[in-house]
From TrEMBL:
<dbReference type="InterPro" id="IPR036812">
    <property type="entry name" value="NAD(P)_OxRdtase_dom_sf"/>
</dbReference>
<dbReference type="InterPro" id="IPR023210">
    <property type="entry name" value="NADP_OxRdtase_dom"/>
</dbReference>
<keyword id="KW-0560">Oxidoreductase</keyword>
<dbReference type="GO" id="GO:0016616">
    <property type="term" value="F:oxidoreductase activity, acting on the CH-OH group of donors, NAD or NADP as acceptor"/>
</dbReference>
<protein>
    <submittedName>
        <fullName>Glyoxal reductase</fullName>
        <ecNumber>1.1.1.-</ecNumber>
    </submittedName>
</protein>
<dbReference type="InterPro" id="IPR044500">
    <property type="entry name" value="AKR5G"/>
</dbReference>
<dbReference type="Pfam" id="PF00248">
    <property type="entry name" value="Aldo_ket_red"/>
</dbReference>
<feature type="active site" description="Proton donor">
    <location>
        <position position="57"/>
    </location>
</feature>
<keyword id="KW-0521">NADP</keyword>
<feature type="domain" description="NADP-dependent oxidoreductase">
    <location>
        <begin position="30"/>
        <end position="264"/>
    </location>
</feature>
<dbReference type="InterPro" id="IPR020471">
    <property type="entry name" value="AKR"/>
</dbReference>
<comment type="similarity">
    <text>Belongs to the aldo/keto reductase family.</text>
</comment>
<feature type="site" description="Lowers pKa of active site Tyr">
    <location>
        <position position="82"/>
    </location>
</feature>
<feature type="binding site">
    <location>
        <position position="115"/>
    </location>
    <ligand>
        <name>substrate</name>
    </ligand>
</feature>
<dbReference type="InterPro" id="IPR018170">
    <property type="entry name" value="Aldo/ket_reductase_CS"/>
</dbReference>
Length: 279
């Protein structure tokens, strides 16, 4: 998967989802983010057009405030939120979605995801998202932290195939088989924790690549994501980081370097295991 398949132009660029909706390929994540209103406002001023939140982050209201106050028209901003585990099930998902809309004070969400594959619940949760999608309350629906067997199980009964799978993705956790499965089913892969929760900055190999291209390690990682056709949502509340993370469109990683980063995959997670979580 290279940039030849996905045109990478600038910060306003998008990947097309299965239903034709265009999702910005680079966005701002706000998990454990300080000063969310300021961070989102700065990101929108810088040119970001996607903001990724979740009910469990307890900052949907701040995201909504920044989006509503922005000079950027609402229809140009892509807002993602997620259904938390304790809200899963058909009716409770519908209620949770309404609560998210109420907190953001937005008329619709662009993308709503199932946050984790809660056993025995996620199929009913998905059925509720399909209802919301049919009612045009949300422009696209998808999942987060789903492995191949979760996706296959969900798709066996689904009337709408998930449009996005947001998964931990970084040089130590590539999961190429899962990436390939998603692409073959036109499920857009999206990287969360692209910086390995800060651990990527400790890697000598990444430092060497940063020096080679005269870029930061973060810029190398984000460019690698996009060249693999993976959308990405680095989180930051620091002004300079938000700006430099977006400065990745004036260079291209050589295919050998993309393959080298791929080869660092050792199956190491910095977040919970989708097959073994207890929350």
């Amino acid at each position: 998967m290279s940039s030849s398949r996905h045109q990478l132009t600038d910060l306003s660029g998008t990947f097309e989802l299965k239903n034709g909706v265009r999702m910005p390929y680079l966005g701002l994540g706000v998990f454990q983010c300080d000063n969310v209103v300021e961070a989102v406002t700065l990101a929108l001023e810088t040119g970001y057009r996607l903001v990724d939140t979740a009910s469990i982050y307890e900052n949907e209201a701040e995201v909504g405030e920044a989006v509503r106050a922005s000079r950027v028209p609402r229809e140009e901003i892509f807002v993602t939120s997620k259904i938390w585990n304790t809200d899963q099930g058909y009716n409770s998902t519908l209620d949770a979605f309404e609560a998210s809309l109420k907190r953001t004070r937005l008329d619709y969400l662009d993308l709503c995801l199932i946050h984790w594959p809660v056993e025995g619940k996620y199929k009913e949760t998905w059925r509720a998202l399909e209802t919301l999608y049919r009612e045009k309350r949300v422009r696209a629906i998808g999942v987060s932290n789903f492995l191949k067997h979760h996706l296959e199980d969900l798709m066996a009964d689904a009337t709408v195939i998930p449009m996005v799978n947001q998964v931990e993705f970084h040089p130590y956790l590539v999961q190429q088989e899962l990436v390939d499965f998603c692409f073959s089913n036109v499920i857009q892969y999206q990287a969360c924790s692209p910086m390995m929760r800060g651990n990527v900055f400790k890697l000598d190999a990444m430092n060497a690549l940063a020096e080679k291209y005269s870029k930061t390690i973060a810029q190398i990682v984000l460019r690698w994501d996009l060249q693999k056709g993976v959308a990405t949502i680095p989180k930051s509340s620091k002004k300079e980081r938000i700006i430099t993370n977006a400065d990745i469109f004036d260079f291209e990683l050589h295919p050998d370097d993309v393959a080298f980063i791929d080869s660092m995959d050792c199956g190491k997670r910095f977040g919970p295991d989708p097959d073994n979580f207890d929350f």
